[in-house]
Design a protein that fits this description.
337 residues, di-copper center containing domain from catechol oxidase, 4-stranded mixed β-sheet, two-stranded antiparallel sheet, binds copper (II) ion, oxidoreductase activity, Di-copper_centre_dom_sf, Tyrosinase_Cu-bd, metal ion binding
Length: 337
């Protein structure tokens, strides 16, 4: 096993100008298929523990009013991701914001549900040629993340795995859904091509020292996996909800695969960062969600302290509350499989 770069939790340090803090603990992040059955059960039961924590801190508004409905801490993450769709995707914030978001989720697992194990990532490039047989698609009721949804007799609900019985709150109460597809229905082109190790290597080689181009190209790789899994991961509208109401929503983190996917996204970014020392604090890019490379707002000289505007990202009550947490940071390291 190889240890890849050590990642401390440094974003708030940069953003708020606080002194650099030492790591409280050092945790490992490991590929899901290296988990033993017991380790899978421990991780999954701690995620389910978050789904059972109702009306915790994140469910309050800034004036202390309880938000309506039956929501859990797990749902609050989906709400947060949804509220920040435009501010945290396809732009300079995409990678650092998701690193922070994933960190907060890991923190919640450890602090709220006493999780002590490794945080998992899913290296989907290993499953390219037989994605459906990937170890992440496991029907076991205690150690499995579930298989595909049933899109014939139900609204793509997952009936197996440990999350088949969980009710999610956003955008309306529903069961976890997947609608796995390997080709883009609009173009008939394969969605898995971009997930190859070779493609990832090409991106890293071509963009060393150029964060903007890296995050732009890598965003598309990231998007493809969301399309492939479909259902909640692709923010497909539940059938009982008006389609227009889902146009601007992104409740992808409803699917527990989201966290494994973003572990992988963060791992690839950390590899890219380690390729060149100047890569570490480079966050050039657009302030807002855009695909337009010629947008005049793009400032290649911008740095994280100028562009990573967490106040703006904190427009959601949930985010502003979690961003204010003051616990000493833990650090993590990716263990290569
Ligand atoms: Cu996202």
């Amino acid at each position: 096993m190889l240890l890849s770069s050590l990642l401390g939790f440094w974003l708030p340090v940069v953003s708020f100008g606080a002194p650099v803090q030492e790591c409280r603990r050092l945790f490992e992040r490991r590929e899901w298929r290296t988990f033993s059955n017991e380790e899978k059960i421990a991780y999954i039961s701690s995620v389910k523990c978050l789904t059972a924590h109702h009306h915790e801190r994140l469910s309050y508004t800034s004036s202390g009013i309880l938000m309506p409905g039956s929501r859990s801490i797990y749902d609050d993450f989906a709400l947060t991701h949804d509220m920040l769709e435009d501010f945290a995707h396809e732009n300079a914030y995409f990678l650092p914001w998701h690193r922070y978001f994933t960190y907060l989720f890991e923190l919640a697992l450890r602090d709220r549900c006493n999780y002590e194990g490794a945080f998992p990532y899913w290296d989907w490039s290993l499953d390219l040629f037989d994605m459906k047989s990937s170890p992440v698609f496991d029907p076991d009721l205690t150690s499995g993340l579930g298989t595909n949804g049933d899109c014939i007799s139900t609204d793509c609900f997952i009936h197996d795995g440990a999350f088949g019985d969980v009710t999610l709150a956003y955008p309306i109460p529903h069961h976890l859904r997947r609608n796995i597809t390997f080709d883009d229905p609009a173009t008939n082109r394969s969605l898995t091509d971009k997930l190859s190790a070779e493609h990832l290597f090409d991106i890293m080689r071509d963009t060393t020292g150029d964060f903007f181009t890296f995050q732009h190209r890598f965003s598309h790789v990231h998007n493809n996996l969301h399309f492939i899994i479909g259902g909640d991961m692709d923010s497909e509208c539940p059938s009982k909800y008006p389609k227009e109401a889902c146009d601007l929503t992104s409740f992808a983190s409803n699917d527990p695969l989201f966290w494994l996917h973003h572990g992988q996204i963060d791992r690839i970014w950390s590899k890219w960062q380690s390729l060149h020392p100047d890569n570490f604090y480079a966050f050039q890019g657009y302030p807002l969600n855009t695909h337009n490379l010629s947008d005049s707002r793009y400032d290649p000289e911008a740095s994280v302290s100028q562009k990573l505007d967490f106040d703006r990202l904190s427009t959601s009550v949930a985010v502003s509350q979690v961003f204010n947490h003051t616990a000493p940071p833990f650090c993590y390291v990716y263990v290569e499989h």
